[in-house]
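FIELD: query
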Amino acid sequence: MLLLIQPLQALADGKVFAPEAFRETINIPDQRALICWSNGTERLVIETRFRGEGSNFAWVVPVPSQPVIEAASSGLFPTLGYLFQPELVHK
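FIELD: result
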C-alpha cells in the first residue's frame, strides 16, 4: 500500500535520438549538471558529451514546463570544480 502512495523515483534525465537508425547506439560517457533554486526559479545547467555514429542528434530532456534555454559559460564547471575541491591538509 505504501508503494502506491509514495512518488516514484525517476532514474533518467533524458534520451538522445538520432534522425536515422544506426546499428550502434548513442551513449553519454560523461555528464555534469548544476541545479540551482533562487527567487522561485529553478535553473538547470547540463554539460554532456555524446558518443556514437553520426553528428546530428536530438536530446530530449523532460522538464515540468516550457524552459528558457540560454548558453552558459564554458568555464562554469571547471570553476565549480576548483572552488569545491577538497582541502588537502598535510601534517
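FIELD: remark
Residues 83 and 89 are 16 Å apart (CA to CA).
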